[in-house]
Amino acid sequence: QVQLVESGGGLVQAGGSLRLSCAASGRTFSTYSMGWFRQVPGKEREFVAAILWSGGRENYADSVKGRFTISGDNAKNTVYLQMNSLKPEDTAVYYCAHRAQLVAGFGSWGQGTQVTVSS
């Protein structure tokens, strides 16, 4: 099992920036990728960004391309999400997720951190 702890959420004005962090512990030696998802009340959780742990290839949802950047620190087992040019529609609870293998899907999740963007 992998345990994930997010931090860095908060309240920011539109156009501002936040950086989320997610520290992983436990069976981190088996990591295929890590990602960020977000959810607002009444809606399904949606994909935001992911990064391959070996090679660093990144993938983004169209809604955040050019504004958000995902990065990882293998030595610290930590993944980051730099969010710039934030919009009110980015308001959500953001979750970090861990994927051990390509075929396994994202199997471990953090507790979530609230991001609120005011207009």
Any overview of this molecule?
- By secondary structure, the chain is mainly beta.
- The protein contains no helices and 11 strands.
- It has strands spanning 2-7, 10-13, 18-26, 33-39, 46-52, 58-60, 68-73, 78-83, 92-99, 106-109, 113-118.
- The strands form 2 sheets. Strands 2, 4, 5, 6, 9, 10 and 11 form a 7-stranded mixed beta sheet that branches.
- The model has no long low-confidence stretch (mean pLDDT 95).
Radius of gyration: 13 Å
Q: Approximately how much beta-strand content do the residues carry? A: over 45%
Outline the biggest β-sheet.
Answer: 7 strands, mixed
How far apart are the termini? 39 Å
| SSE string | EEEEEEEEEEE
Which bin fits the share of residues in helices? under 10%
User: How many beta-strand elements?
Assistant: 11
Query: What does the overall shape look like?
Result: globular
Structural class: mainly beta
What is the overall pLDDT average?
Answer: 95
Give the uncertain stretches in residue-range form: none
Report a brief summary of the structure:
This protein has 119 residues and is mostly beta strands. It is 0% helix and 55% strand. The N and C termini lie far apart (39 Å).
List the helices and strands and how they pair.
Blueprint: E1 2-7, E2 10-13, E3 18-26, E4 33-39, E5 46-52, E6 58-60, E7 68-73, E8 78-83, E9 92-99, E10 106-109, E11 113-118
Parallel strand pairs: 2-11
Antiparallel strand pairs: 1-3, 3-8, 4-5, 4-9, 5-6, 7-8, 9-10, 9-11
Keywords:
four-stranded antiparallel sheet; 119 residues; seven-stranded mixed sheet; 11 strands
